[in-house]
Design a protein that fits this description.
The complex is a heterodimer of chains A (about 375) and B (about 475).
Chain A (H helix, E strand, L loop, with lengths): L7 E5 L23 H14 L3 E4 L18 H8 L7 E7 L5 H14 L5 E5 L4 H5 L10 H17 L7 E4 L4 E3 L9 E2 L4 E2 L14 E5 L10 E4 L4 H14 L3 E10 L5 H11 L9 E4 L1 H11 L5 E6 L2 H18 L12 H5 L17
Parallel strand pairs in A: 1-2, 1-13, 2-3, 3-4, 4-9, 9-10, 10-11, 11-12, 11-13
Antiparallel strand pairs in A: 5-6, 7-8
Helix pairs in contact in A: 1-9, 3-5, 8-9
Chain B lengths: L26 E6 L19 H13 L4 E4 L7 E2 L2 E2 L10 H9 L6 E7 L5 H14 L4 E6 L4 H4 L13 H16 L24 E5 L4 E5 L11 E4 L4 H10 L2 E2 L6 H17 L8 E2 L2 E6 L3 H15 L2 H12 L37 H15 L3 H8 L5 E4 L1 H13 L5 E4 L6 H16 L12 H4 L8
Parallel strand pairs in B: 1-2, 1-14, 2-5, 5-6, 6-9, 9-10, 10-11, 12-13, 12-14
Antiparallel strand pairs in B: 3-4, 7-8
Helix pairs in contact in B: 2-3, 3-5, 5-6, 6-7, 9-11, 12-13
The chains are: A alpha/beta (about 375), B alpha/beta (about 475).
Chain lengths: ~375, ~475
Amino acid sequence: MSDHRTLSLAVDLDGDGAHPAAWRHSGRRPGDVLTAAALRAAVGAAEAAGFTLATFADTPVPPSRGLDPAGRLEAGTRAAFAAPLTDRIGLAPTLHVTTTEPFHLATQLASLDHASRGRAGWVVGAAHDADDLATIGASAPAGDAVRRETADVVDVARLLWDSWQDDAVIRDVATGRYLDPARVHHVNFTGATFSVTGPLITPRPPQGQVVVLAPAELEIDALADIVLVGEPDTGALTRRAARARDSGAALAFAEVEVVLDADEPGERRLAALDASTPWPDSGRPRYTGSAHGLVELLRSLAPGVDGVRLHPAVLAVDLPVLAGQVLPALAAAGLHRTPGPGATLRSALGLSRPANRFAAPASTTA
Amino acid sequence: MTTTTSTGPTGSTGPTGAPYDPGAQVHLGVFYTGVGPQLIWTGPSAAPHVAIETFTGLVKLLERGLFDAFFLGEGLRVRENRGRVYDLDVAGRPDAITQLSALAAVTERIGLVATQNTTYNFPADLARRLASLDLLSDGRAGWNIVTTDNAWTGANFRHGGWLAHERRYERATEFVEAAKELWASWEPDAVAESGEAKSWARPGAIRDVERDTGLVRLRARATVPASAQGRPVLFQAGDSDGGRELAARHADVVFSANTGYDKAVAYAADLRARLARHGRSPDSLRILPGASVILGDTPEEARERAEWVQSEQISPARAIAFLEQYWGTDLSAYDPHGPLPGIEPSEAELDPSRGTLPIERRTGKLALIARWREQAEAENLSIVQLVRRVTPQHGSFVGTPSQVADEWAHYVRTRAVDGFNITPHLVPSSLEDIVDKLVPELQERGAYRTAYEGTTLREHLALPALKP
C-alpha cells in the first residue's frame, strides 16, 4: 500500500512524557504541565521537528493516584487547542468509546477535522476497568462485549462522517434552499447496545473520514486506517503489521518507547527515572541509547511497517534530540518526509480521500 | 420594541427592587446559534458557516469590541420537516467545546461559552471537558446548561428518550451539582512545587466524587485543578419554573427570553426573590436576555432594514414550511402570497423535529389553526403575511446606534438587565456594526468598558469571586 522506503513519524505528546516519573525531569513546576503554555510548546516543537502526527494519550481517570501526575487535560480539547496554532502536523487525541456517547465522539472528531482543516486523527480508546466505567456509572462488561462495542462505535462514527455528502450545502438563492435534503442522510445504525439515527450535526469532515488509529490489541484492524502495533521483537512486529494490512487496515505503525542520550546517556537517565517510579512494561519495544542507534533501529523496521509512533520518556529531554538529530538523519537518508504546510493528514500519510458511501457512483449521477 | 430615552433619578429604587445605578455597565455576549432561520445566508457577504476562519474572525472582532463572551448554541439532531432534513435554514455546526478550545488558542480575553446538554451527556465526562477548556483558556470558559426531553433527539443517543419532561430539571440539578463537586475537588495547593517532592500531588488533596441516585450515578476523580476563575461560569436559559429554580440555585448568569422592558423588570424581580430564598446575594447573578439588534444611520433606515431582515427570515418558502409543520402534510402546491390552505390539517399534534418544541405548543394545534384562519380572514392576510404575524419574535432593538445605546443604558441603570446576549442575523456584518457603531455610543455614556479590566470571564461579568 505505501512506499516502504519511507516511514511516517508520529509522536505522543501526553503530559511530561511517557515515563511516569517524567515530571521530575521536565525542568518546570509540576503543575505547569496543565497549562496552555506547555501544550503550545510541545505541539510547536513537534511540528517544527517535522513529525507527521502528534497524538494525545488520555484515560477517563487520572494517570496516577497522586504519587506521579494526577492531572491531565482532556485530549480532545488539547488537540483542538493545537489546531489553529499549527498548519501541517496531524492531531490525534485518544477518545474512549466506553465513556462518551458515540454521537458526541463522531461530532467532536469531525469538528477537530474542520478546525484543523483536515488534520484530525482518532486514537481509539476502549478503557473498561472498573474505575473507568464507574465514571459513567456503568459496570464492567463481560467477555467479548468490549470488542463488539468498540467496533460498533467506530462503525457508527464512520457512518456519521458520511451522513452529509460533500455537496450537501447548495445555497440555492433562487429556491431558498440552503441544503439538498437528498444529500443529508439518516444512518439508522443499530449496534449491540445502542442505536443512532443521525445525521451528524456537523457537515462531512474535510478529509471525508477522520484518520482512525486502532491499537492492535483492540482487534478492530478492518475498521482502522492505521493499526498501532507494539511488539517487543521485529519478527512479531512485522507479522502483526502484515496481518493488520491483510485485514484491511491501510497502514501499520510500530510503537516504540525512547530514552535517548542527551546530557547524560540514555541508560543512566532511564535508571534515574526508574529509581523514582519503575516504568511498567507496556509490551512495546523500548529503545535506550544514541540518536544514531535509533535511526538504525527505525531503518531496520522500515520494510515491515509504514510508520512509527514514538513515546519519548521525557518530552523536555528527548524531543529536542529527536528534532535535532533523529528526524534530520532520517530525512537525509530519504526515510522520512516532512509534511508541507496546509497538507491534510491523509495526504501526508499517502492515503486517498475516501468516497462517500451515500453518494451515487459518478457513472450513475445525472 | 420602541426606543425610549430616559434617565432615572439617582437614589430611587426602581421597579426591579434594586436601586437606580447611574454607573451600571452593559455586558454583551454573542449567542451564535450557527443554524436556524435567523441567520441570513442568501447574501454574498454571508460567511461560510462551518469554516474555522469564520469563527476565528468573529471571535477576534468581538474581542476588539470588548465583549464579555462568545456563545455557541447546540442542537443534537439536525432539524427536519416531515421526516426529511429541513432544507431552508443554515444547518450543520461544530461541537461547541471542540470549537471553543480551538478559539481559546487565538484569543486572550473573551469568554467562551458552550451550550451543553445535561440529558445526553455523562456528568464526569462533560465536567472534565469543560474544566479542560477552562484551564486552556486561563479561566474564560462558560457552560450554558440546557436540557432535552424529546425522544426524537434521544434517537441519537444510548439512552434514547429516557427522561420525562418534568424530571429533566431534577437530572440537570444533580448533574450540575456533581460537576461543581468535581470542579472543587482539588485543594488549592494540591500539586507539588518542585520535581524533588515526595509525590506529584499532596496525599489527600484530591477527593473522589460519588453520587448514586436514580438520575445521576458516578464515581470519579477530577483530572484537573481549578482554573484562574475557579470553575466555568454557569449560564442557564430555561424560563419554566424548573429552569428559574435551577438558575436561582446554581447559575451565575441567566440567558433569559424576557427582553421587552416590562417583562425584563418582572423577570428580574422574580429572580431576585428566588435568589434571596436560596440565600444568594442579588449581585451573584447576571441577567442577559437574548436580543437581536438592527442598526441604521437614521431611524427610517433601521426600520427598513428590519423589514428586510424579517422578509428574509420568514421567506415565502419558510412560511409554507412553517404551515406544513402544523398541517402535517405537503403544502408545496399552495401560493405563499395566497390564502391559507383550505384542506384540513392532520389530527396528530406537532412533533419536535423542527427543534425544541415549547410545552404549550404540544397540544391544541387544531384550535390554534382555527384562530389563524379567523385572523387571516378578518385581516385579509396571505400565508406569508400571517406567518410573519404569528411567528414569535425575539426581542429586537431597531434604531440608530445612539437610540439603542440610550435604551440599553436605561435598562441596565434601572437594573432590569445586566446586558444582552445578541443573536446575529448577518455574519459578520451585523456584528461589525455593533462593535464599530453601538459600542462607542455606549462608551460615550459611561455604560461600557473601554478596556478589559480582568482576564477571566467571571471578572468580565463582575461576578463575586468564588470562595476557595
